[in-house]
Amino acid sequence: xxxxxxxxxxxxxxxxxxxxxxxxxxxxxxxxxxxxxxxxxxxxxxxxxxxxxxxxxxxxxxxxxxxxxxxxxxxxxxxxxxxxxxxxxxxxxxxxxxxxxxxxxxxxxxxxxxxxxxxxxxxxxxxxxxxxxxxxxxxxxxxxxxxxxxxxxxxxxxxxxxxxxxxxxxxxxxxxxxxxxxxxxxxxxxxxxxxxxxxxxxxxxxxxxxxxxxxxxxxxxxxxxxxxxxxxxxxxxxxxxxxxxxxxxxxxxxxxxxxxxxxxxxxxxxxxxxxxxxxxxxxxxxxxxxxxxxxxxxxxxxxxxxxxxxxxxxxxxxxxxxxxxxxxxxxxxxxxxxxxxxxxxxxxxxxxxxxxxxxxxxxxxxxxxxxxxxxxxxxxxxxxxxxxxxxxxxxxxxxxxxx
Length: 403
Known about the structure:
alpha/beta; two-stranded parallel sheet; 15 helices; elongated
């Protein structure tokens, strides 16, 4: 279903819709999701089951309610593995000569945990257990009774997948100086998901972190993905017995280490200093995702983002223009205090196309210019009122006589 939706969007050339989803929504959503995912892994650290939920309150209640079942061994092992991962990630980031440590961290943690379990056989530390050997088998879905109930989830996954994949693709395209076709990306994602669905694969998308690691490693083409796929296939065919004794607390530490990088509080601080409106959007998306669930959080964040776009379109910025001394150039008098205007004449620029939703706002503002005294420098003979309002409209100038 996700693949079909993505292909339809790509074929209909709907990639432009992504432009309406601001980075604030993506950042707030990923930050809240990272916290929820991290808490959901706490059961492997604590040694007892907790409720499955995408909301933080039920998770915290479940963790507190079962605290009497707390077990030390998985907590200590998980903490040690997490410390190893964070230390290797830090060294890999800060020292170029040790960059390989960043990618080798998860493997090191898994090997450490597996060796410890094989030597000491602690009964209180749960392990992965037997993993089916071989590649996934081809199968065609036959039971479509769940289609209706999966429609909201399919749309949600499609939206998040597009945001993440196209977002990182645009970043890498800008960094390497090549063009990106969003519609082509959608078709590629859709085909990958349609083909993968016949082998029981998860919905596929591009990953921020994995793409960054791939890029930093020097990968330039899709051959890197082919090599990765071959290695994974060989692991499934021949190496699954090695994974039987991997401690689940070690895998949970890997997940927690990964999601810690998604907690983007720096973005919130940056938005607070730069644009309070974007900070409000980040806060709304973060809070609703954290307390109401991932699905509702995304919908509310996107809805508020679109509401901001509509508000900006319906209330466009209108600038009063003045003439720069010694030139025939007119600029915004608020940005260029040296620009001067003329008595009885107001020249304005509307920084938006004029259409039915904003015409009322524009009329109100133009009426204000007839009565409001402009404090900028004026020239020409003094008059009692404004006689003309001149509107700059791209290639045309519209003069309105104020009778």
